[in-house]
């Protein structure tokens, strides 16, 4: 069912001040089948990109598939003019993609800079929730940036016409038309959270 919109808002209340890391919460969700999964690593604020670059250079690519310092485009008004800038999608976190989290955690522990994987569950590390990883893989571009989207609202129904949010209308929970900002609901239950994404609504009827 398509979400219906009134005054640009629908569904749950969003907290724009913080984003939780949606890790798998159940022990049996920790992968053992050799699939590439993403794991969160806590890093100092503002150093996400430089940390990711250091990891790519320092670690064996056979162990580290990628290190993702995800960012999103956002609209910022300066001097009366709207501009697009990028900001961290998950501030103070990067994601390491690997088939062997335990071996990667040991390799990270041998680096000269701190790089702890968060979300340990007993003897295993909890990866990013599978549905969230899949959504990010399909929406982030090759530079790991969530680009801005454009759309319209017709008779209370949101349609995204351009950009990575196209096809994700049903999980958009809130829109701030003035700031050209959308909040996307990812995960579910205890893993659910809202993620900020740039969305310009060009018309509303």
Structure, described:
The chain is an alpha+beta fold and 205 residues long. Helix content is 15%, strand content 35%. It has three helices and 13 strands; from the N terminus they run βαββββαββαββββββ. It has helices at 48-58, 101-109, 130-139; strands at residues 37-42, 66-68, 71-78, 81-88, 93-98, 120-121, 124-125, 145-146, 149-154, 157-162, 172-176, 181-186, 193-204. It has a five-stranded mixed beta sheet with strand order 10-9-13-12-11. It has a three-stranded antiparallel beta sheet with strand order 1-5-2, with helices on one face. The protein has a three-stranded mixed beta sheet with strand order 4-3-8, with no helix packed on it. Strand 11 and strand 12 form a beta hairpin. It is elongated and about 55 Å long. The relative contact order is 0.23. Mean pLDDT is 84; it is low at 1-18.
Which helices and strands, and how do they pair?
Layout: E1 37-42, H1 48-58, E2 66-68, E3 71-78, E4 81-88, E5 93-98, H2 101-109, E6 120-121, E7 124-125, H3 130-139, E8 145-146, E9 149-154, E10 157-162, E11 172-176, E12 181-186, E13 193-204
Parallel strand pairs: 3-8, 9-13
Antiparallel strand pairs: 1-5, 2-5, 3-4, 6-7, 9-10, 11-12, 12-13
């Amino acid at each position: 069912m398509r979400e219906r919109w009134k005054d640009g808002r629908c569904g749950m209340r969003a907290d724009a001040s913080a984003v939780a890391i949606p890790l798998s919460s159940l022990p049996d969700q920790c992968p053992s089948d050799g699939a590439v999964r993403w794991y969160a690593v806590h890093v100092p604020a503002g150093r996400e990109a430089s940390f990711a670059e250091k990891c790519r250079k320092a670690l064996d690519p056979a162990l580290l598939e990628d290190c993702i310092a995800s960012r999103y485009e956002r609209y910022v008004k300066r001097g009366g003019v709207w501009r697009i800038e990028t900001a961290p999608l998950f501030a103070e976190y990067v994601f390491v993609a690997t088939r062997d989290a335990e071996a990667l955690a040991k390799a990270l522990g041998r680096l000269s800079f701190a790089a702890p994987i968060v979300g340990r569950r007993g003897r295993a590390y909890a990866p990013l929730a599978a549905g969230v990883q899949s959504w990010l893989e399909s929406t982030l571009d090759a530079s790991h940036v969530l680009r801005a989207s454009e759309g319209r609202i017709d008779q209370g129904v949101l349609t995204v016409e351009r950009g990575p949010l196209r096809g994700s209308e049903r999980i958009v929970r809130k829109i701030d038309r003035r700031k050209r900002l959308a909040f996307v609901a990812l995960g579910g239950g205890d893993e659910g959270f809202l993620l900020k994404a740039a969305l310009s609504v060009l018309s509303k009827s």
